[in-house]
Every structure is written in C-alpha cells, then in structure tokens.
C-alpha cells in the first residue's frame, strides 16, 4: 500500500478551475432563489473565487462565460484577477440564450444565423487573445425535439463547417474544446450527444481540438471512466466539467452523489497520464449552487476533488498490475478498494497546515467573516445570476 507521504508532493500540482457562474444565483425552471452577498459584477465573482483559492490553494483560475461576463476591458479584468491572486481561464461561448438560436446555432439551417453564431465564437477568441486563455470551450444547445424537424446529417455537416471556421481562427497555443451532452434542452436529437461525435469533429479539425467531458452529461449507468481512458488513449481529453448528479444534469457538488465514481474517474486519469506534470487536461467545475451558500459550495467541491485524487494516487499500481497479470480478480479489486476506503482527511489537513493554508478551509471561511461582509456590502445593484 502506498503511503500518504509518497503522494503529498504530487498533490501540490493540483489545479481546479472555478466557473464564474457558480457564484451567481441559479435555480431550476421553478424558481431562482436570491441569496445575500451575491456578486453584482464579474469583478465580484472573481473576488469570491479568490476566496476559494486563498483558503484551499487548489483553484488558481476562473472560467468566464460570454456574454455573461463580458466587460469593456478584458486586459484590465486580467489585472483585477491577478491582484486578487487568481487568473482568467477558459472562455465559454454561449449560443443558448438568444432568440435567434431557437432552432440551432452552429448547426442552423439559416446561413445568417449560423454566421452570427460563428462570429460570436470568433469574438470569444478575440477575448482569449487579450486574457491569455488557452481554451475556447463550446457547449451547444443545438438539437431537435421531433423526428423530421431537422435533417440530422445536414446539421452535422453544417456543424463541421462552423467548427472549421472557428478552429482556423485559433492561435498556435489555443485549443477548441467541444463538450457533449446526450439530452437537454433538445429531447429528440442533440447535435453533439456523445464523446464519439465530439471526437469525430475534433479529429477532423486537428491537434488542437479536444473533447470536454462533463460528468453530468451521460445516460444513467454509463461507465464514465471508460470514456476517460479512451479519450486519454486518443490524446483528446481536453477538459473535465466536474459536478455530480442523481438524475440528469443536476450540476450538484462534485463527489456529493457518488464519491466512488469520482474516485474511479480520477484513477483512470492518473493511470492514463492525465495527472502527469506535463498533462494538458484541464480540471474544471461546472456547478450551480441553488440552495446552499455558493463560496462554501465551491470550497467543498475542490476539497472533494482533492480528497479523491489523494485516494486514487494511493492505489498501489505496481501491485495492481501484477494482480491483473496473474488474473487475480479479487486481489486486484481489493487493491483498488483499499485505496478507496483510506480516510485521508487528517493527512490532508496536515498537508494544508504544512503549506500555510487553513487545516479546515470550510471552518476558516465561516470564521473569516467574508460572508457577512459581502452580505452587508453588496446591497443594491443587480445580483448576477446564471445568465447575467
Ligand atoms: C450545459 O449543460 C453545459 O454543462 C455547459 O458547460 C454550460 O455552458 C454550463 O453549464 C454553463 O451554463
Ligand atoms: Zn458543462
Ligand atoms: Zn451541463
């Protein structure tokens, strides 16, 4: 069995990107509950994200969503982030809240609307040039609700053409990351429903096109760690959107619903080289905190990822490989489960203490008074929501 001391230095390179939208108000189709202290601007979202990083050391960057986080001066925004101790990360495009996109965006049959959707992505790349962001992440709401509503193949052909135009605009160090999702908001056919479709488009585009795996975007029972393995094997796992789900795309705190699944995913990441020093896999959260406080929700999330990473690193891979080679079915399974069942919480508290971080970031946040301060300060103005 590997010891915690053997893996503590490897934990030091963990970096989890936070989504700006996690700090705004969000909800279901039934109700969006407001909360005290919710940011009224992008700068305030960055300030909240910086709290998560200051208390955990795990979240050095923040993903932006355009147009929700559009500002006049992105260079200045980058400096604001830097002053707060974080940096701007992935730029997410948004073609799902404009009336023009009712029947699609990059797949739209109307060339005018498709060109508008492409132009939006080109604007996102302009922003990346200023922020220094590496990744343009594309999630499309495109799809159809009724058989016959659209020509499935025609939509794929137009998507390929649109993606090509966007890809050609990228700089040498930038990447296009294409996210898939099997349903919602379309309920009959989604245009990028699965990793195979995303991968096919990426392979056609070129080396800098990668797949984004959102853990909430699969049918129940899907073996997600198999997909992780396969994408790493193909060199096309660009990023994760971590969250957890009980039913559909619930966007709950990662590791809350099924910690064992998170462990299995992270083990395949590690085994496949996705956690190596030179790995370019981006680890992001894509979550909404509808009823719980948002900053503690993000703190809990990054701690959950760290905890399962630690347990996955503890797997004795030499012994596991040997058990697999010998056909020792239960022995191999036992090696994996020994690591999964190892309680690393006390070791991680000490790990944090050794690095000048609070041993208990959740308690430290409450004790800091930050929540009371923002509740008092951020009165008036419009609270940022999921979409504002
Ligand atoms: C939507 O289901 C996807 O997970 C996207 O990543 C989306 O951009 C994100 O949830 C923010 O709305
Ligand atoms: Zn996502
Ligand atoms: Zn989603």
Provide a quick synopsis of the model.
InterPro entries: L-rhamnose_isomerase, Rhamnose_iso-rel, Xyl_isomerase-like_sf. This protein has one domain: TIM Barrel.
Describe the structure.
The protein has one domain (14-305): TIM Barrel. It is 45% helix and 11% strand. Helix 1 (4-11) crosses helix 9 (294-313). The chain has helices at residues 4-11, 42-56, 74-84, 111-131, 152-169, 195-205, 224-233, 259-271, 294-313, 317-325, 329-340, 345-354, 361-368, 370-377, and strands at 18-19, 61-65, 87-92, 135-138, 143-144, 175-179, 189-190, 209-214, 237-242, 282-285. The chain is built from 14 helices and ten strands. The chain starts with a helix and ends in an 11-residue tail after the last helix. It has 388 residues and is α/β, with parallel strands linked by helices. Strand 1, helix 2 (42-56) and strand 2 form a beta-alpha-beta unit. The protein is globular, with a radius of gyration of 21 Å. The model has no long low-confidence stretch (mean pLDDT 97). The strands form two sheets. An eight-stranded parallel β-sheet has the order 1-2-3-4-6-8-9-10. Strands 5-7 form a two-stranded antiparallel ribbon. GO terms for molecular function: L-rhamnose isomerase activity. Its EC number is 5.3.1.14. This is L-rhamnose isomerase.
